Amino acid sequence: MDAHLGCDFLDHPVSTGTTIMAVEFNGGVIIGADSRTSTGSYVANRVTDKLTRITDKIYCCRSGSAADTQAIADIVSYSTYFFENQNNRDALVSEVAAEFRKFCYNYRDTITAGIIVAGYDDVNGGQVYSVPLGGMLIRQSCTIGGSGSSFIYGFVRENYKEQMEKEECVEFVKKAVFHAMFHDGSSGGVCRVGIITKDGIERRVFFAPSVDEKPAMTPASVTVR
Amino acid sequence: MLNNFATLDEERGFSFRNCKRNAQLVANGFIPPKAIKTGTTICGVTYKDGVVLGCDTRTTIGNIIWEKKCEKIYKIQNNIFVAGAGTAADMDGMVKWMRSNMELHRLNTNRKIVPVITLVTTLSHHFFRYGGAISCVFLIGGVDNNGPHLHVVYKHGSKMKLPYATMGSGSYAAMTILETRWKPDMTEQEAKELVADAITSGVVNDLGSGTNVNLCVIRKSSSEKINGYREICGNGKRILDYSIKHGTTGIISETIKKIELDVIEEQIEKMEVE
């Protein structure tokens, strides 16, 4: 396109291609995401942090249009801060999720946002809520989202267990995100994981396994020497 | 201090009333004027004590170079500079908006320095309200009480905080240099050379970027704009004298005719000279 002299990325909106997931475990929730933001076929940011803070113990995982999800997260973060200030108590995860649903549903025709809200509160412990495109709100104990999630539905069905221990759950989330990143072109970079418990959030970053390592899944027809 | 996310300000927003008419004109064969774009290579890099921003100096309309030495790095505050890429008119408008907003913010909050994130947030929220109609992207670099920061804000309103970034048509070329050679905690000289090399790569490999490399260094308590840090394209030096000498064209005959003019009205206006 002559008008842009080769800056193809100016024609495409910035989207968080993405793989995101959140899982309830024994003691809280674990959230995970890849780190790639793309504009068309160009990777605009290879170290994105898609795990966005709403409060110290409530985070959201963003997928869809980067501008839409960042703007909504900013609005919800602000209105939650105001709510906590006015009501003199910490917001519940369900309240934050409902606020997300309010925006995602009312503006469902104009925005592209698939959001997972996850956190810990003193009333109900660790909770995960999914607010996909269209603005539905549903609580699930394990949920995946984003373009990369289509590749790991089978893996998650097979390997998810209720109330896992912390390290076991971190391994599960890490493996799931890496499997999705392997297959999905719009997901890549590193795997960011957040462990939210009553003590706050613990963040970890995992790098992709080296290409020299034997792949985790080998086709049945190939003999491995 | 609720930002007006979803309110429609009838007087100040863009008016799309003529879009239908314009579409019909184009369908009837009218060729619309092209926008002046700043083709561009801009990049920014954080180093140990601050941020270095760099840009080329070419502005284009379609395939024509409109301006050889234009300015793409703008001062917003003493500690915050932005580099812009996109439609020149939108960039200029947004720079005016940023400057007045940040100065008003500083005066209203009685702050000595405005945090960089303040500009990033207000700018990204403003872009989001306009749904991407303001066609420019900005690299925002600055140093505040929390250290040096570099942010990118896209035209739809998304923002990214990065240690190094490039934008514009030459960004692919510049990014190769940054990805190879950026490392944390560089010295100021290393950072300046890295940015200059990245912009040079854009100038040399991209048609939309050219002429010179301008740099801007922002440190904790000072900032410095260096125009023409590196000159890559310049006019060549003429070796021979190409002027046409008197007598080259032979004069055969000469006739002088006086044109008679009637003076109808004489008006003398005094020129204001300070």
Secondary structure layout:
The complex is a heterodimer of chains A (225) and B (274).
Chain A: E1 14-16, E2 20-25, E3 28-33, E4 37-39, E5 42-45, E6 51-55, E7 58-65, H1 66-87, H2 93-106, E8 113-121, E9 125-131, E10 138-139, E11 142-145, H3 153-159, H4 166-183, E12 191-197, E13 200-206
Antiparallel strand pairs in A: 1-4, 1-7, 2-3, 2-11, 3-12, 4-5, 6-7, 7-8, 8-9, 9-10, 12-13
Chain B: H1 19-27, E1 42-46, E2 51-55, E3 59-61, E4 64-67, E5 73-77, E6 80-86, H2 88-109, H3 116-129, E7 136-144, E8 147-153, E9 159-161, E10 164-167, H4 171-181, H5 188-205, E11 212-218, E12 223-231
Antiparallel strand pairs in B: 1-2, 1-10, 2-11, 3-4, 5-6, 6-7, 7-8, 8-9, 11-12
Helix pairs in contact in B: 4-5
Rg of chain B (C-alpha, Å): 25 Å
Number of strands of chain B: 12
Q: What string, H for helix and E for strand, traces the elements of chain B in order?
A: HEEEEEEHHEEEEHHEE
The greatest inter-chain interface is formed by: A-B, 26 and 34 residues
CATH architecture verdict of one domain in chain B: 4-Layer Sandwich
Mean pLDDT of chain A: 90
In oligomeric terms, what are we looking at?
Answer: heterodimer
Give helix % range of chain B. 25-40%
Nearest-integer average pLDDT of chain B? 90
Beta-strand percentage range of chain B: 15-25%
Low-confidence stretches of chain A: 221-225
Please state the overall shape of chain B, judged from the principal axes of the Cα atoms.
globular
Class derived from helix and strand content of chain A: alpha+beta
